[in-house]
Design brief:
Length: about 160
């Protein structure tokens, strides 16, 4: 009986924790504007702070560092930039034109569980709560496709 109860409580604990973790992370938002292209490697996506001379607009992308397990401002911003690039790569965009960055308050949920026994009695506890005061980094960008000739031309102009 005790082993069956322990297995059920372990299963319940795992299920509640997984549910809590998936509820905490926010999904990227993508609004298609142009035509998507075949997906590319994320390492091929370049971050632009200024508009390139020539490009095709593919989509507007919004992401946050929520659920990234990144601590500190720089680590959270790195996670946001990586997520922007990942979304762009899925759409076949070889560039992200950064529009805005910011912060938002995190609405994380924590889950606590416990099991114990005393004098032959067994008890199970599940607790839910919210953490306040945490902030996540956010960013919005435009997923773009820059033709090779345009990016090479810009590179040449910078060297001259």
């Amino acid at each position: 009986m005790r082993n069956a109860f322990s297995r059920r409580s372990a299963w319940l604990t795992t299920a509640v924790m997984l549910l809590g973790l998936t509820a905490c992370s926010s999904k990227p938002s993508t609004v298609m504007i142009g035509e998507a292209r075949p997906a590319i490697n994320v390492d091929a996506v370049k971050l632009y702070l200024k508009e390139p001379a020539q490009y095709d607009t593919i989509a507007l992308v919004s992401v946050s560092s929520d659920g990234s397990w990144s601590f500190g401002d720089q680590a959270q911003m790195d996670a946001v930039v990586q997520r922007l690039k990942e979304q762009a790569a899925k759409l076949g965009a070889n560039g992200i034109l950064l529009q805005t960055t910011g912060e938002k308050r995190d609405n994380s949920v924590y889950v606590g569980t416990g099991i114990g026994s005393y004098s032959g009695n067994v008890g199970l506890s599940v607790q839910l709560g919210r953490l306040f005061g945490l902030t996540d980094k956010t960013a919005e960008g435009v997923a773009i496709y820059v033709p090779n000739s345009a990016s090479e031309k810009e590179h040449q102009e910078k060297q001259d």
